[in-house]
Specification:
- It is built from ten helices and seven strands.
- It starts with a helix and ends in an 8-residue tail after the last strand.
- By secondary structure, the chain is of the alpha/beta class.
- The radius of gyration is 17 Å and the shape is globular.
- It has a single domain, classed as Rossmann fold.
- The chain has a seven-stranded parallel β-sheet, with helices on both faces.
Length: 249
């Protein structure tokens, strides 16, 4: 049971790419602290499992299947959240795809365009759909997920690095646009995190880059996101926090 104080601070948070990995860990963490959730993913089956698990644990979760790089899908999802909950207090743009491990000369234009569409344009579309509601409320919190690759650069990931660096520049500029309306916009740029996406690229050959005696877990990222969505981060905006175990200092 949530106490009256918990109810007072409960937020409505929309998380994209929430079916698995980092997105799922973020959803679980926010639910545990009492937030009501709207969870998006393009994988309907896995998303339904995550939503069912949260509901079985007594949490409020609305499942939203849709492509976050599609304008109409994004508008429909945001409309459903507002219809269900009456407002949107927080947005976490986590949905994305990983690099294909190709050098600049190996990449096709189609692969470049797909990366920017999903890992950058989707955050633009989501923010453009959600910010008007936050402006009306006079408050809101946005966390966009980038990557340590945007900060350090990684060979074979020029398209991924470009998209994730774009997320940082986009977020800093948006933070300045909406600060007077008390809307925080921040970025979390994870390092090597043990997810299915990371394992496809290979974890062992990257782990030696980390100073900390282990690789990251999705919960490490979820903790940072939860902090940025909390009242404790009220005076933080336009910043990049990077849980990376000392891989980049």
């Amino acid at each position: 049971m949530n106490s009256p104080e918990d109810q007072k601070h409960r937020q409505i948070v929309l998380v994209t790419g929430a079916a698995r990995g980092i997105g799922r860990a973020i959803a679980i963490r926010l639910a545990e602290q009492g937030d009501d959730l709207a969870l998006n993913d393009i994988d309907a089956e896995i998303l339904s499992q995550t939503v069912h698990q949260l509901k079985e644990s007594g949490h409020h979760a609305l499942g939203l299947v849709g492509d976050v790089s599609d304008l109409k899908a994004v508008q429909d999802m945001v409309a459903k959240v507002v219809e269900q909950y009456g407002r949107i207090d927080g947005l976490v743009n986590n949905a994305g795809i990983g690099g294909v491990g190709k050098t600049l000369l190996e990449l096709s234009l189609e692969e470049w365009d797909e990366m920017l569409r999903i890992d950058l344009t989707a955050s633009f579309l989501m923010c453009q759909a959600v910010v008007p509601h936050m402006l009306t409320q006079g408050r809101g919190r946005i966390v966009n997920i980038s990557s340590i690759t945007a900060i350090m650069g990684v060979a074979g990931s020029t398209h991924y690095a470009a998209a994730k660096a774009g997320v940082i520049g986009f977020s800093k500029s948006l933070a300045r646009e909406v600060a007077e309306s008390r809307i925080n916009v921040n970025v979390v740029a994870p390092g090597l995190i043990d997810t299915d996406m990371s394992r496809k690229r290979g974890i062992d050959h990257q782990s030696h880059l980390i100073a900390w005696p282990r690789i990251g877990e999705p919960e490490d990222v979820a903790s940072v996101v939860a902090f940025l969505l909390s009242d404790k981060a009220e005076f933080i905006t336009g910043q990049v926090l990077s849980p990376n175990g000392g891989a980049c200092m």
